[in-house]
């Protein structure tokens, strides 16, 4: 018998609960399946951190050392796991420190939800302490952003944020919550995930006529060539992609963000595109008759000079974002859609073929590249160590199982060129924005996103010093990240350009380093420095076998250049081997 | 200065959007990021309650306009974007002119000029009179020239508003947008649709 004094337990659950905006925020995260948050507290986000105190068991909060480190860590998490990365930061400087990471995530299509605290709603626009107009500051670098000034908006705002961040072409979303909204108690109606916004179409219904046209073009092609990008990975379409190229027998090359979608030793994987990509894929872009671009956006670092790019070819472009189709390169057949859906339709219609002679041309060019560049880079006869041989040793010792996170510059190009990946989501790097300082925090996040996989950060001596403070995050969390510094005592990529294009006028590219091993030791992280070939392999072995994080600094030859190279303003066919 | 391509002309961009704080900025930066000047911008209600209508005028090539329209439509809170040349729309701008009343009253010529230019007095005071005209740019511009010799005190012109000649309005489209599973029509992209003509085998 139910009485007023003893209401039914189910009725109690159904009755609307009165909770704070801060609690509603955390409940929303739990409903979205969030397990890890990268953040840094501050005055305007204290109510959310106060609520977090009671959610410590369900939500793992990683305290970073700088908000930029926090957002790069969330990017690493998203890239290694395929889930939405979550960041907390306070108002003012906390929020503005996210801007570089937002820009990076926007251009590299990384799903993030960033939650920033904001001053009380009644203080907006008064230059209050730590007030900054973060909505307007971040508008160009977010897929969507929204300011919450009333707690009752929180469940819907966060539901939309997660839906927008991960659907369609993913991207970063920022939700700015004023302090009063975090504190305010309201009747929580429960959380409903978002699955439809009337003004937002994440992906289209695939038009069969374009699939038919694309297949017809592919079937009559003599020298078809596939370029793929990160869209294959973001769409979780690696299997569909592999099935497509295997049936059609088409040689395929990748942009650096597309790397690792299929193994590097796959017989149809002909290598890397772009400025420092492989010789064959660049030269033969201007000789193929049908170019099939899948989930890539013809970035200028990939195309070189546009008016001399693949002019002879019919171009098929598969992309989920219609504004990318025809943006840089005129397209013969647009295939607008999610490649997870379009690729199987295309595979069904293409004829099973091999293109042995055409594929052989890629091998011929590779042989030339090996002779001119790769052999000496990976197995040097010179006394000093090369970046390439370190990556080669790492390949052998990890068996291609590791996630490699790179920063920006020469070491990045070497790692992307020579890393031998076996699994998807193994290559994490800042592609579009080229953000130095990305690698160390991104590697921390990548490890949280894929704890079962070894994570190796490869960083130059310049980039490492940009976010070196995140060693503190490693120390405090005990996360297992292997850090390799390729130290050439220069800002190497700029130095290379100054050597090649500015008469060796080395303007401010000499960069001094602290004793990194000692710095690491100050953070309780084991380390070693090597400069002799004989020590290299044992040191990498030691690093990989070490329980917990390890820093390995490798002194490499100072003035090595990355080749091949498509100089800026040149066509891909004008790629230089030396 | 580089020479401007000759195929640049005025385009009228019409965007149907949600009524959301910050959306104006999100749309404006699509132009300013590319250093494209907005010639005229008007935001108003549309035929549907709660849906706003942006009218934007720019002077550009069709290729650029098509890309800009795509970028605008990509914004989460934008439902649909159209772009049209001046021939495809009915458009109007409104202008106000403030002139000293004594001159108007004294000179019969002025009254005739105002009449010829379709101007209408909105306010008549002892010291000044405000006239209004509505029309195309040349018409509102012309009256400035006419009134200048008679001591034009103040002039202001509104943004352009434009109705698309071939449009059936947005009501039916909106119903499609509101469906969780949109029909192919809604999922289509006008810029890609025109590709039919491009493809040849």
The biggest beta sheet of chain A reads:
6 strands, parallel
- Structure annotation, total helices of chain A: 24
From the alpha carbons, calculate the radius of gyration of chain B and give it in angstroms.
21 Å
Extended strand count of chain A: 20
CATH class of the largest domain in chain A: Alpha Beta
Taking pLDDT < 50 over at least 5 consecutive residues as the criterion, the unreliable ranges of chain A are: none
GO molecular function (chain B): acetolactate synthase activity; acetolactate synthase regulator activity
Protein name (chain B): acetolactate synthase
Subunit structure (chain B): Dimer of large and small chains.
EC number (chain B): 2.2.1.6
Detailed description of the structure:
The complex is a heterodimer of chains A (578) and B (201). Chain A is 38% helix and 17% strand. Chain A is of the alpha/beta class. In chain A, the strands form 4 sheets. Chain A has a 6-stranded parallel β-sheet. Chain A has a 6-stranded parallel β-sheet with strand order 11-10-9-12-13-14, sandwiched between helices. Chain A has a 6-stranded parallel β-sheet with strand order 16-15-17-18-20-19, with helices on both faces. Chain A folds into 3 domains: 16-188, 3-Layer(aba) Sandwich (Rossmann fold), CATH 3.40.50.970; 208-361, TPP-binding domain (Rossmann fold), CATH 3.40.50; 383-556, 3-Layer(aba) Sandwich (Rossmann fold), CATH 3.40.50. Chain A contains 24 helices and 20 strands. With 201 residues, chain B is an alpha+beta fold. In chain B, strands 5, 6, 7, 8 and 9 form a 5-stranded antiparallel β-sheet that branches. A 4-stranded antiparallel β-sheet of chain B has the order 2-3-1-4, with helices on one face. The relative contact order of chain B is 0.17. The interface between A and B is medium-sized, with 36 and 32 residues.
């Amino acid at each position: 018998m139910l009485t007023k004094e003893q209401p039914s337990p189910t009725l109690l659950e159904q009755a609307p609960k009165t909770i704070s905006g801060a609690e509603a925020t955390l409940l929303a995260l739990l409903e979205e399946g969030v397990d890890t948050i990268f953040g840094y507290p501050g005055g305007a986000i204290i109510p959310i951190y106060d609520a977090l105190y009671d959610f410590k068991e369900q939500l793992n909060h990683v305290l970073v050392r700088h908000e930029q480190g926090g957002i790069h860590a969330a990017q690493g998490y998203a890239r290694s796991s395929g889930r939405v990365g979550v960041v907390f930061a306070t108002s003012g400087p906390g929020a503005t420190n996210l801007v570089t990471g937002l820009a990076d995530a926007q251009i590299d299509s990384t799903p993030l939800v960033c939650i920033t605290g904001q001053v009380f709603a009644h203080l907006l626009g008064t230059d209050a302490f730590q007030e900054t107009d973060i909505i307007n500051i971040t508008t160009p670098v977010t897929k969507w952003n929204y300011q919450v000034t009333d707690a009752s908006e929180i469940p819907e705002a966060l539901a939309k944020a997660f839906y927008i961040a991960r659907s369609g072409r993913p991207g970063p979303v920022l939700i700015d919550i004023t302090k009063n909204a975090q504190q305010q108690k309201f009747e929580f109606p429960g959380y409903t995930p978002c699955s439809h916004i009337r003004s937002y179409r994440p992906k289209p219904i695939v038009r069969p006529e374009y699939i038919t046209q694309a297949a017809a073009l592919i079937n009559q092609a003599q020298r078809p060539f596939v370029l793929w990008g990160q869209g294959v990975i973001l769409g979780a379409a690696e299997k569909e992609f592999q099935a497509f190229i295997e049936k059609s027998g088409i040689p395929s090359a990748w942009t650096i963000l597309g790397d690792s979608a299929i193994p590097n030793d796959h017989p149809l994987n002909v290598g890397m595109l772009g400025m420092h990509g492989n010789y064959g894929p660049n030269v033969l872009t201007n000789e193929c008759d049908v170019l099939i671009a899948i989930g890539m956006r013809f970035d200028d670092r990939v195309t070189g000079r546009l008016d001399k790019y693949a002019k002879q070819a019919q171009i098929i472009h598969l992309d989920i974002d219609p504004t990318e189709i025809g943006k840089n390169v005129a397209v013969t057949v647009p295939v607008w859609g999610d490649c997870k859906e379009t690729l199987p339709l295309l595979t069904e219609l293409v004829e099973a073929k091999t293109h042995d002679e055409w594929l052989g041309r890629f091998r011929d060019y590779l042989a030339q590249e090996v002779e001119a560049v790769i052999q000496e880079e990976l197995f040097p006869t010179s006394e000093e160590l090369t970046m390439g041989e370190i990556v080669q040793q790492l390949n052998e010792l990890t068996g291609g199982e590791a996630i490699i996170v790179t920063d920006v510059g020469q070491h990045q190009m070497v790692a992307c060129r020579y890393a031998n990946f076996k699994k998807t989501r193994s290559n994490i790097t800042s592609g579009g924005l080229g953000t130095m300082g990305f690698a160390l925090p991104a590697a921390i996040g990548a490890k949280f996103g894929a704890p079962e996989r070894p994570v190796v950060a490869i960083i130059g001596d310049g980039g490492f010093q940009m976010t070196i403070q995140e060693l503190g995050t490693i120390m405090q969390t005990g996360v297992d990240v292997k850090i390799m510094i390729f130290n050439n005592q220069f800002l190497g990529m700029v130095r290379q350009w100054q050597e090649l294009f500015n008469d060796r006028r080395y303007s401010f590219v000499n960069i001094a380093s602290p004793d990194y091993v000692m710095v690491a030791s100050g953070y309780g992280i084991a380390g070693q420095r090597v400069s002799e070939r004989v020590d290299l392999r044992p040191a990498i072995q030691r690093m990989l076998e070490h329980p917990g994080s390890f820093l390995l600094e490798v002194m490499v030859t100072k003035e090595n250049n990355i080749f091949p190279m498509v100089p800026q303003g040149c066509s891909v066919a004008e790629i230089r081997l030396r | 200065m580089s020479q401007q391509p000759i195929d640049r002309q005025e385009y009228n961009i019409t965007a149907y959007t949600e009524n959301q704080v910050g959306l104006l900025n999100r749309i404006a930066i699509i132009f300013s990021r590319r250093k494209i000047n907005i010639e005229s911008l008007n935001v108003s209600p549309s035929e549907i309650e709660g849906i706003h209508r942006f009218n934007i005028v720019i002077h550009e090539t069709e290729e650029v306009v098509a890309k800009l329209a795509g970028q605008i439509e990509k914004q989460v809170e934008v439902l649909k974007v159209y772009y049209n040349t001046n021939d495809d729309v009915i458009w109007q701008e409104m202008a106000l002119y403030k002139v000293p009343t004594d001159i108007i009253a004294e000179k019969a010529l002025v009254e005739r000029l105002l009449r010829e230019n379709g101007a209408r007095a909105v306010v008549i005071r002892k010291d000044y009179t405000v006239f209004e005209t509505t029309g195309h740019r040349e018409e509102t511009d012309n009256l400035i020239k006419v009134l200048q010799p008679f001591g034009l005190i103040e002039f202001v012109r509104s943004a352009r508003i434009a109705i698309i000649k071939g449009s059936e309005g947005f009501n039916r489209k909106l119903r499609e947008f509101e469906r969780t599973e949109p029909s192919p029509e809604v999922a289509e992209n006008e810029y890609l649709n025109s590709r039919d003509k491009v493809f040849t085998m």
